[in-house]
Design brief:
There is one protein chain. The chain is 61% helix and 5% strand. It has 183 residues and is mainly alpha-helical. The chain has one domain.
């Protein structure tokens, strides 16, 4: 079980990362919000919705009544174990995601849904879903038998690691927004 100090550090880091992402999201020019910068790449609206969905899946999974929620595994259990114990700690330490990692189907944004969302609506939904995710993960982490979040590439993760991964994921997309979407 994670200590209060670990939760405080992870929550503080998360809050900073989320505020930075929202700041970048709000700086996208309105006429670029629904436009992709490259063929086959997400528009700012789609990318922001992807980040929102990641939080919604994280909080929904640990709040699921059966306690077995998250994503469908895309790798073997052995590969997930290796990734969870070798790659994930490196990612969290360096604060970098591997380039070219494909988004699991559960977090791929819907183009029709993204086309209906303004930056203000996505920002509000993101703040709400991030707060719900942090609260759900914290509550799960405090249980005698905490629920695990199943990640497509890493397998089952404890609540604190899930929060840290959500922060790393949001940071990754903040960098992407800074490079591609903010002028």
């Amino acid at each position: 079980m994670a200590s209060d100090r670990q939760w405080a550090a992870a929550t503080s880091e998360h809050d900073e990362v989320l505020a930075d992402f929202i700041s970048h999201l709000q700086r996208v020019q309105p006429d670029h919000w629904w436009l992709s910068t490259k063929a086959g790449k997400w528009s700012p609206a789609e990318e922001a919705l992807h980040v929102v969905i990641a939080y919604e899946i994280g909080s929904g999974a640990v709040a699921a009544p059966d306690g077995d929620g998250g994503m469908r595994m895309l790798v073997s259990p052995a590969r997930a174990w290796l990734s969870r114990h070798l790659l994930l700690p490196l990612m969290l330490m360096t604060k970098r995601f591997p380039r070219g990692a494909k988004a699991p189907a559960e977090v791929v944004p819907s183009l029709p849904e993204a086309a209906t969302l303004s930056a203000a609506v996505v920002s509000a939904r993101l703040v709400r879903s991030a707060r719900e995710a942090v609260d759900a993960l914290r509550r799960s982490g405090e249980r005698a038998t905490p629920r695990r979040f199943v990640h497509a590439y890493f397998g089952p993760l404890d609540s604190l690691t899930t929060l840290r991964l959500l922060s790393a994921h949001t940071r990754h997309h903040t960098r992407h927004f800074a490079r591609r979407h903010v002028r």
